[in-house]
Structure formats: C-alpha cells, structure tokens
Amino acid sequence: MRDGLKQRLLRVDYESWDNPWYGFVAAPVLAILGGSFGYFLGVHLVSSPLAEEIIAYVCIAITFFVGYIGVALIDMY
Predict the structure, then answer these.
(1) First vs last C-alpha separation in the chain
(2) Cβ–Cβ under 8 Å, residues 75 and 23
(3) How many Cα atoms are found within 13 Å in the side-chain-facing hemisphere of 37?
(4) Do residues 33 and 41 touch, judged by C-beta distance below 8 A?
(5) Where are the extended beta strands (E) located within the chain?
(6) Where are the transmembrane segments (predicted)?
(7) Which of 12, 51, 56, 67 is the 20 to 30 Å CA partner of 28?
(8) Local structure of 1: helix, strand or coil
(9) For the whole model, what pTM was predicted?
(10) Rounded Cα–Cα distance for residues 58 and 22 (Å)
C-alpha cells in the first residue's frame, strides 16, 4: 500500500507503511541516538543538571522527528 508521507507520520498504527518493521526497529535506535546526542551535548552546553535533562529530551524529540521522516521517505521509494 503506497500512502503519502503525511499519512505515514501521523498514523499511530503501521498499516500505511510498506514494511511495518521500520517503526519497530527505528524507534529504539532513534531513542538511543537522540539520548546519546542529548547527554553529550548537555554537558558541554549548560551547567545545570535540569537543563542537561531538558536538552537530552529535546534531542530525543528532534531525533525522532527527523529520523521518522527519513524512514518514511525510505519506505515511500
């Protein structure tokens, strides 16, 4: 089934994906990657422990957003 990028990203289930395993494999990989970036950057960018945690969570969110767009584009073509 070939649905658009918007439908792939906004649906919670994996019915619109050509390969449903992309979500199951990408989610933990992107979480680990984003968490690693966040904790490494947080130490160097801010001095407060709370700000380090916030930067880590923001990096996880950005990594998920960009990563799932990339995975959806790969799945479309």
Answers:
(1) 12
(2) no
(3) 13
(4) no
(5) none
(6) 21-42, 54-74
(7) 51
(8) coil
(9) 0.72
(10) 22
Domains in the chain: boundaries: 5-76
Residue 45's CB: how many other CB atoms inside 10 A? Answer: 11
Here the tokens at position 56 are 């880590």
Q: Are 38 and 16 in contact (CB under 8 A)?
A: no
pLDDT value for 67: 86
Lookup: tokens for 68: 């799932």
Place 1 in a pLDDT band, splitting at 50, 70 and 90.
Answer: very low
In percent, the amount of the chain with pLDDT more than 90 equals 4
Tokens describing residue 19: 């390969």
